[in-house]
Design goal:
By secondary structure, the chain is α+β, with helices and mostly antiparallel strands. The chain contains eight helices and nine strands. It folds into two domains: 3-57; 72-280, L,D-transpeptidase catalytic domain-like (Beta Barrel), CATH 2.40.440. The protein is 37% helix and 16% strand. It has a seven-stranded mixed sheet. InterPro entries: YkuD_2.
């Protein structure tokens, strides 16, 4: 009879021992199960998404690099401003073409070695307006701004027709290099050599030169409503022609412009002009 209570006590003790070991086992197993859960694919997208949102944005080249500005255009505009050309009525588009040709000709060795003079004639303007400009690019000076005549058969007040043909009595467009002075039937004159094939290369054979003429004056305009006309020469006022010729002789650049007349030129190559700019001395010139 005394054995039964003892048996009951031992059973209770064993149950308590099993319960205690179960708790110990649970404490050991739970961290392992938790680790398996965190490493499962369910947590993968969440971790990946968090990492993606935390990553810094990398700017592309298009976002951080602005479009380049042409260094030639910048230099041309700066020179245009220094010369005061806009205030004197010369449009930038015409000046840029003239400067482009000047640099191309300088690069090709066709201008005088120390020559920095550039003459521009803009036949987009009528003869009653001053449409000849003479610049010294090295010293940033406008030397002359005056009247200039066009050829008899190029038009009345406006020059609209141009030719490279002898006895056409028309003006010729494009780039010229000035030659020597001489005394001709118009007095002191300046030889011109046309450089644009098909447009002005017959200028010398046609005796197209710079000279003075009494029909190039404000008085002639008042009496006739326009300037008189030449046989194709860029004729100058009698009061200024000698000084202009003296400023331009022996290797200066002359550019005669007319927009929309079909004129093209290999000397209007902006890439070549930009390459020639550093050695031209124009960027660092003082004036």
């Amino acid at each position: 009879m005394n054995s039964h209570p003892h048996h009951h006590t031992s059973v209770v003790q064993r149950r308590r021992g099993l319960h205690r070991r179960a708790k110990q086992l649970a404490r050991r197993v739970l961290p392992f199960v938790a680790a398996l859960f965190l490493a499962s694919p369910v947590a993968g997208p969440l971790l990946k998404s968090a990492a993606h949102s935390a990553a810094p944005r990398v700017a592309t080249a298009q976002q951080v690099v602005p479009a380049p500005i042409s260094s030639f255009d910048g230099a041309a505009r700066q020179l245009y401003q220094r010369l005061g050309a806009e205030q004197e009525g010369l449009r930038y588009e015409v000046f840029q073409k003239a400067l482009t040709g000047y640099l191309n000709l300088q690069q090709a060795g066709k201008l005088g070695g120390s020559q920095s003079r550039l003459a521009v004639v803009d036949f987009d303007l009528p003869s009653i307006e001053k449409r000849l400009w003479v610049f010294d690019l090295a010293t940033h000076q406008l030397l002359f701004h005056t009247l200039v005549a066009h050829g008899h058969n190029s038009g009345e007040n406006e020059a609209t027709h141009f030719s490279n043909t002898d006895e056409s009595n028309m003006s010729s467009l494009g780039f010229y290099v000035t030659g020597t002075e001489y005394e001709g039937k118009h007095g002191q004159s300046l030889r011109l050599t046309g450089l644009d094939e098909g447009f002005n290369t017959n200028a010398a054979a046609r005796s197209v030169v710079m000279h003075g003429a009494d029909y190039v004056s404000e008085e002639f305009i008042r009496q006739n409503g326009r300037l008189g006309r030449s046989l194709g020469c860029p004729a100058l006022p009698l009061a200024q022609y000698a000084q202009i010729i003296s400023a331009l002789h022996d290797g200066s650049c002359l550019f005669i412009n007319r927009t929309g007349a079909g004129y093209t030129s290999k000397f209007l190559n902006v890439d070549t002009a930009q390459q020639a700019l550093p050695s031209s001395g124009l960027e660092n010139s003082q004036g």
